[in-house]
Amino acid sequence: MPKPRKHDVGLPEQVRRLPSGSYQLRDHGIIARKDATLDQIWDAYRAAISTDTQTRSLRHFADSYYASNNFAILSERSKQDYRECEKRPIVYFTGKDCTAMTTVDINNYLKERFKKAKRRANLELVWFRNVFGNAVEEGLYLGQSPAAPIKPKRLSREERKTNRAKKRLVSDEDYQAMLTAAPVACKVAMEIAYCTGCRPGDVLSLKRSDLALDGFIGVEESKTGHEYAKQITPRLAVALELANSIPGQPFGGWVIRNRYGNPYTRQGWHANWKRWKTRIPESQRFTFQEIRIKAISEAEGNKQEFSMHSNARMLGIYDRQLPLSPSHD
């Protein structure tokens, strides 16, 4: 325990006056000159402590990850998803010295999150792993990442069954109802999404220059960077031809465009889709993402080649058709 001061009793804790007269804060160096007033010394002390606290915060750890090459090479969609994951953890751990954070601290947070938002809790676990993995590499955190030993939270059998029940497969009747009620840009997007099974973002970012291949569409996935060619079937050709009649400003190269001739932003498309689907009964409404699920589920032949998923596990998330098991004759 430090001894009580006999001199300079008004100085902040861990601040001492050097023989030269300057004032030094332990582990921070000189913070004030010898002619500084007591108020100036205290102001310098608070500024130094504040900076130290910030560099130990989860906010600083997250920003360090966002400045890393591992984050820079991600797609814009993935970057946005990770930034969404930061919101609750950073608020929860405000004021926490993250250099001393333990596996128990993170696990206790995730257990509470899991009670309210199960899928989001597991996404935030991935975020914690990336942030603290980078912190270890940058020397911000000493030792093994506290998020590394934590396993994703699993759903019970009943919860999985309930989730499957919620994920209905869009019927042909519901799809046709939306297709009939939708404006031209929406019709084109729906048909391209169904015919190709591509991700919504890749459908909306399609350009006329991507149709340069003879009888094929060149696709570069924004999420993964994978490149492949999709065959232009007669149904898909009709949709691409219909795209020429989308109203708005002069055509600027985008297959699906807004009235200004620009591509839809992710938020803009969701807002419009939400408005367009009010034209059909509520029981028939579905999301734009569910068209991809319908397309993959109803694909004939090798579904993994159709969806271009890298593994069968991801394909299983999108394929909602019940597997057929043979019986004895």
Short description:
It contains 16 helices and five strands.
Neighbour order of strands in the largest sheet:
1-2-3
Q: Briefly note the structural class of the backbone.
A: mainly alpha
- The end-to-end span amounts to 85 Å
Strand count, sense and closure of the main sheet? 3 strands, antiparallel
Shape: elongated
Order of secondary-structure elements: EEEHHHHHHHHHHHEEHHHHH
State the helical fraction.
40-55%
Number of helices: 16
SS elements, strand count: 5
* Rg for CA atoms: 28 Å
List key phrases describing it:
mainly alpha, 49% helix
Walk me through the structure.
The protein has 329 residues and is mainly alpha-helical. It contains 16 helices and 5 strands. The strands form 2 sheets. Strands 1-2-3 form a 3-stranded antiparallel beta sheet. The protein is elongated, with a radius of gyration of 28 Å. A hairpin with a 6-residue loop joins strand 4 (216-220) and strand 5. The relative contact order is 0.07. The longest helix is centred in the middle third of the chain and has 21 residues, at 118-138. The protein has helices spanning 38-55, 58-66, 69-72, 76-85, 87-92, 103-116, 118-138, 157-166, 172-181, 184-196, 200-204, 234-242, 266-276, 289-297, 303-307, 312-318; strands at 15-17, 23-25, 29-32, 216-220, 227-231.
